[in-house]
Prior knowledge:
The structure holds 2 protein chains of 2 kinds. By secondary structure, chain A is an alpha+beta fold. Chain A has 20 helices and 29 strands. Chain A has 3 domains: 14-138 and 200-253 and 258-291, Alpha-Beta Complex (Aldehyde Oxidoreductase, domain 3); 294-466 and 631-785, Aldehyde Oxidoreductase, domain 4 (2-Layer Sandwich); 482-627, Aldehyde Oxidoreductase, domain 4. The N and C termini of chain A lie far apart (63 Å). Chain B is built from 11 helices and 14 strands.
Amino acid sequence: MSEGIGAPVKRKEDKRFITGKGKYTDDIRMENQAYAAFVRSPHAHAEIKGIETSAAEEMSGVIAVLDGAQLTGDGIGNLICGWAISSKDGSPMNMGAWSALATEKVRYVGDAVAVVIAESKDEAQAAAESVEVSYNELPVAANIAAALADGATEIHDNAPGNVIYDWELGDGDATDAALAGAAHVTEMDISNNRLAPNAMEPRSAVATYDDAEDHYTLYSTSQNPHVARLVLSAFYQVAPEHKLRVIAPDVGGGFGSKIYIYPEEIVCLWASMKTRRSVKWTAERTESFLTDAHGRDHVTKARMGFDADGRIVGFKVSTKANFGAYMSLFSSAVPTYLYATLLSGTYDIPAIHCEVLACYTNTVPVDAYRGAGRPEASFVVERLMETAAREMGKDPAELRRANFVKDFPYQTQVIMNYDSGDFEGNMNQAMEAADWAGFAARKAEAANRGRLRGIGMACYIEACGIAPSAAVGSLGAGVGLWESAEVRVNPVGTIEVLTGSHSHGQGHETTFAQVVAERFGVPLDSIQIVHGDTDKVQFGMGTYGSRSGPVGISAIVKACDKVEVKVRKIAAHLLECNPDELVIEDSQVKVPGTNKALGWHEVGLAAYTAHNLPADMEPGLKEGAFYDPENFTFPMGCFIAEVEIDPGTGKTDIVKFVASDDFGVIINPMIVEGQVHGGIAQGVGQALLEEMVYDESGQPVSGSYMDYTMPRAEDVPSFVVEHHNTRCTTNPLGIKGCGEAGAIGSPPAVINAITDAIDNNDISMPATSAKVWAAIQVSGTRMAAE
Amino acid sequence: MHSLNYHKASNASEAARLLSGTEDGKFLAGGQTLIPAMKTRLAAPSDLVDVSGAADLRGITVSGREVRIGAATTHAEVAADDALRKVCPSICDMAANIGDPAVRHRGTIGGSIANNDPAADYPAAMLALGATIKTASREIAADEFFVGLFETALEDDELITSIGFTAPAAGAYAKFPNPASRYAMCGVFVARGDDGVRVGVTGASADGAFRAGDLEAALDGAFSVDALDGISVNAEEMLSDIHGDGVYRANLVSVMAKRAVAAVS
């Protein structure tokens, strides 16, 4: 069986994962290792009056108790947000100071105030409980409404009214005019619930300072170790880049939450220098809930106008986004350039305007979480489309069909330029797989069983392959978003691929190897993927935004191109032929139709012995490349959810879920299907189950699995996953990306199905059984009255 | 977790003796509540006296319709006991749906009722079955035993040794699990015995498990689903939290009661 592109080969990395041989950060044991435990604020908003450490310092095993004054005294810089967004009036965003250990104020429950370094974890925790911090409690703004209310407490001195920015995109006047002239306007208030990322592996860090070399090593649960090193060095002044090695070994899930550099990693590095000990910290699950950057948390007012034929004439969106207590690393980009730019959805919309007001609250920082802005956009667009169809008495599928973008490339009114797609093709495929036409009979049959059955569709589109560096630079990004790769052919012909992408569940060790195996006609087992270590890999921007396929693999392809040129030159020299005559396949470099052939390994050996190379050629066979994408990629798809609801309890069962995706060229369909399954499960979690709730005093209410509902196997059906792929036209292999699609398209499909089943469109996520039951009481009463 | 002293008792009297010598000791049965509390440092006993291996606290005996279940009997053992299932399948079914397999193979009936978690399943069963809770020194009727949220009639350091009840002619338990914790958001145990119908409810009330008198009266009149139409509990006395308000939980009491009745009638 082929092991190349398109082959569903089993994952090379799973042997170590499923036999317990994976090596995660918490598995790292350094000699001389000590443990960190953080003293965290129990208050959502308070002044720090004093920190009394003497009792803790006396306790057994305690090596040091350190606080924010010492941290800032040593010149450790504040955490930053790396994407500058300006308000409508041109003013820069109001970024408040975020010290890794709070100095004057705490701003959310869990804000780190001090750290204890001790010989054991238990001793560190016990001493942390004995650090006495005196607080002067301040009024709390625990949600968007409270933060933006008149007279609200101000969380940062430089953010009046708690406003970070008031930004806009699109043509406001044209959109207002279009809506004013619309035959029908659908208007909705929509919220997007706040989610805790819940990677299976909690965050962890092991930091070691070598005083002889004045060098630091950090093992960390990172999706992007080079970015971590860059930020730790350039902004936080922990150590210069050449004196800091960051290693992200096996990482057990990220979903965005491990993009960011958190206070704990900074403090562990600094504490290892202060104590001359290796310092380890691993989050307990409670700390994960308290400190991992949360996702989403929007409230939105949206208006979509249609002409008499049901064509969209304008779309106006006003969103308020909760950023939490501090601006996390990518936070500013999420509700702007990863959200508003996708508001055209899969539709040809002639006028779009979006305003986004970002605010601070006394909650944990909010940043990118699987999908990052695009689920929010997809939810707004697809809830509006479904609702508009119902209001206008049109079939929701036909309303979408009438408005689809059909010609490519298509320039939206909100920056993005869609390169390819066949949106109707995906919708047709999904409708057929879901037996859309047979739904009425199934609904009637369910009614006979006393169950409410509903069907819902969502046609999402997203932007992956983040991102063209010059373009994002012009929009405020602090970094370029290219990727790098190095392909090393060894003297025996085996291949190492060094990639700046990072795998934390995605299966890169398999898919990246498949690409190279196909390219050079060599066995999959002869290829090793190396990633996650700044001392091994040249540089990399890491893995997020479904970029590893379209950007990371493209860099590998580019490096392979260079290797191939050299292979051809060497082989042509040895075989005395023209390089263009050569074919590389079946572990050979040969001239077809002749007996001129070299084994792949013979070319490698020739390159390294250098006994007989073309004139002026350097020995060796290794090439590097940086690939900067020319455009985003645009995976899209049509999801159809079918639900049955128990009217007695309001419990929703998803009885069928069909996904038809366009991911461009697929490397490994088995891995892609797994990504779709995982993404839909997360989307179902958002739609039905998950919500990070804070009470008015800023205390987390759902800060454990006793109250935060993760989706379980029984909450999702056996998915029907289909593909109708069109090639991406802007990268070498035609890849679009698949990592986030499931989480982007599924929430609106599920909510559209529920609202269809209960004949009540007024329901927010998560659509818990209690909410659905209450909504049924309303619609039941309404129907009884009609 | 804080450090502590661990003791293993081979019988109930040894357990009591071991505990009496400790500073701030606690009995440990299955540890499904206490151990998580200790791991999150919310509980820090000086000593644990493990009663899970105490021979005289384990096992199920059925003679005629009389049932005795040792306090350290696990949920899995209750679920799988053939003799018990013959006379009282409802309690077996209930035990089979507590928590997950790990919980069911560690958690015990004595631990569950001594803890009296307001969302635990067993308290509802004990109330509906009119069970008697036995300790080394006395017997306590279930109606007197469950005092309030995490509160029982047990004295400090008083160890439950067994529970006993007369198997009802018919019974069933219907549970609507909390989506996150899978404890009962509302669990209703209906038992029709010689002295009439008893309905035990857990999960729904802020004060813990209770008997639903109005539902019992209705079912005493006619043991049928229809008899429960329009009969519920006071929503204002029900728990209200992020998973559902009192009105919703009051509805769940009615719906689960109907489903329990439907299961046996």
